[in-house]
Structures are given as C-alpha cells and as structure tokens.
Amino acid sequence: MLELPPLSLYIHIPWCVKKCPYCDFNSHEMQQGLPEREYVAALCEDFDQDYADCESRPVESIFIGGGTPSLFSAESIGAILNHVQSVSSFTDQIEITLEANPGTAEAQKFKDYRAAGVNRLSLGIQSFSDKQLKNLGRIHNAQESIAAIGLARQAGFDNINLDLMHGLPAQSPSDALNDLQTAIDFAPEHLSWYQLTIEPNTVFHARPPSLLPDDVAISDQEDAGNILLEKLAYKRYEVSAFALEGRQSRHNLNYWQFGDYIGIGAGAHGKLSNAEQQAVSRTRKFKQPDHYLQSNISRRAETTAIDQTELPVEFLLNALRTRQGFTRAMFESRTGLPFSGIEKKVEYLSSNKLMQEVDGWVSTTDRGFRMLNNLLQEFL
C-alpha cells in the first residue's frame, strides 16, 4: 500500500555570474540585472499550485540551489521562506540549505541569510588550487574560498557543506588528497566529494580539457580520499557524500530514500505521491526563465506518472546509493508494491556477496557499493 512519504522542497534560482564549462545544470549567465522581485512572486505562486496536491503535509527540508542562489538578497530568500511557511507548515527540526558561491560571499549577506531562516550553507569550493579553479572556469580564487568559510562561521552557521571535486586536469592522487585535507582542516560538518564528469551540452564536452586523469588514477584518488575521510570521522553515507555523526543532509537523504519533493523555479523537477490514486508522478517546470516567468496559469511543463513496472527500479536507483539502504516496509510504502517482487533478485545478489540484509536493512556490501552501476543493471 502506497503511503505518503516525507515532503521536501527544492527551490531553483537559475542565474549565475558566469556559467562553468563543466556545468550541465539549468543555469543562465546574468545579462542586465536580475528580475528578482518578479521571480520571487512566481516561486510563491508555483509553490501554492504544487502544495495543493500534497495533502497538507509539513515541509521537512528545503534546498535552495542554482545557478547561484547567493545572488539573491536575504530579503528575497526570507520572503520565499515566509510564504512557504504561511501556506504549509515546517517541522520543528527543518533543514534549510542555501548554495553559495565563494565569489559572491559577503559578511552581512551571510548574517542576513541566517536571520532569514537559512540554517545550513553549502559552499561551492570545488578546489583550493587557484590553477584548478581557473581550469574549471570558477569566478573565485582559493583565498576567497577560505574567506567565505570564515564568514559563514562568523554569521552563525554551524552546519556547513563544502563541495569539492577530484579527477581534475593533471591532478595527481597527492594533489587531490591535499585539496581534501585542506577542506577537512576547516572542520565542515559535511563534505560532498565528487569526480569531475564530462557531460553532454557543456563546453567541456565540446572542448575536453587536456590531461584528465585516467580511470586508474581516479580510482587511486577515491580510495585514498575515502580512507582519509573515514579516519577523520567523516562517514560516507552516499556515493559522494560524507558527514560527521548526525550531520547527514536530511534533504538529500529524502531524495535517496524515495521521499516526495516539490520542485519550484525554472527547470525544477519534483516527485509527488498520491495515496488515494496509489500513484507516483514526476513534475518538471518550464526551463527558460523568461518562459517560466510568463506562465501565469501553470508553470508545470510536464507531469508524468511513473509506470508501476518502473517504480522498483526508480526506488532502487536512489536507495542503493546510500550505505544504509532501505527496509522492506520502506520499499512497500513508497512504491505501493510488495517486496516479494524484488526478493529473488536481492537473494541472488546476496548469494554473490553484492547485497545484504542486516537488522532489517537491505543494502549493498562494500563490494556491491564499488560495483553499484553494474549491480543496478540487474534490476533493469
């Protein structure tokens, strides 16, 4: 029986100062200022329309991403949050994350974000090497990254994530490890450490950077980094996510555990369950900011019901990214399907030491986690 899972909210702010050559997100370089007031009004209308389908559930987490959300004023961020809370309700322990670019960091702005209700900051550091930052087309330098972390702490943020990349041009395992150690030295509560990938429809796809590490070098970087992080109390709880005890991103965990989320803003995606209809749907908003702003009646470009035959795979593609995995009850309540439908495959993979069921939790083994993409193919 499909039951309503926890509800999160993703807010997309699509503008940035300069689009990075590796970025395949829906981001657009600023041209002549930002339509900030109009966009805030559109976001509020967008939320109202989607929340009407959520059966008055409280919002458990909010993530404001982009683009570069820190281009918006704290007043605008506060107006959005206040509206969302006035229409819905927040859980007592709500997590509200804002992505910020070190190149747009200001002491007063960070303090104002905190006062507006943001309680978790995610800083897009990417590297502490000026050479690598230039290679990546970032607008900030290493010193600005260091300053931004300090400003965030001074503003009262006690829950900070640092985004860091590896597998960069001409980056050796020792270079990657030095970058990671620098990040750890600032004692962030959370680290997202992920590999540079060359995605379609990016500048790097059209003109790949030279001297990218090969698969062996990247594997060496990952192994050494994982050991260092675990040694210093950063527990890997998802493919690219590490956190101190109790500091996992609740918002991202809700994604990976097949929870529901409203997605508002240009190009935002959402996932919503309907217990009465025993159905799960995905939503997508109009991608181009101008089109999104002009679509007063509905900003949904598309609503697609997930076919029941696809629900198990959709669930597993998310849940098996986490080290914890999922329970049988979680699978059944979030897909509306019996666990028996995947039980034989789980037993087969368990017999091959790729999956396991421990204390009621179904997850990958260490070996299965390293072979996750191949393992997931078994369910397709």
UniProtKB/TrEMBL annotation:
A single Gene Ontology MF term assigned here is: metal ion binding
- Matching InterPro entries: Aldolase_TIM (IPR013785), Coproporphyrinogen-III_oxidase (IPR034505), Elp3/MiaA/NifB-like_rSAM (IPR006638), HemN_C (IPR010723), HemW-like (IPR004559), rSAM (IPR007197), rSAM_sf (IPR058240)
Cross-referenced Gene3D superfamilies, in alphabetical order? Aldolase class I
Which keywords fit this entry according to its UniProt record?
Answer: 4Fe-4S, Chaperone, Cytoplasm, Heme, Iron, Iron-sulfur, Metal-binding, S-adenosyl-L-methionine
In the UniProt record, which is one GO cellular component term? cytoplasm
User: Which GO terms of type biological process are on file?
Assistant: porphyrin-containing compound biosynthetic process
Q: Which residues form a coiled coil?
A: none
Q: Which cofactor does it need?
A: [4Fe-4S] cluster
Q: State the compartments where it is located.
A: Cytoplasm
PANTHER family per the UniProt record, alphabetical:
COPROPORPHYRINIGEN III OXIDASE (PTHR13932), RADICAL S-ADENOSYL METHIONINE DOMAIN-CONTAINING PROTEIN 1, MITOCHONDRIAL (PTHR13932:SF5)
Please describe what this protein does: Probably acts as a heme chaperone, transferring heme to an unknown acceptor. Binds one molecule of heme per monomer, possibly covalently. Binds 1 [4Fe-4S] cluster. The cluster is coordinated with 3 cysteines and an exchangeable S-adenosyl-L-methionine.
Query: Which family, according to the similarity comment?
Result: Belongs to the anaerobic coproporphyrinogen-III oxidase family. HemW subfamily.
Full protein name: Heme chaperone HemW
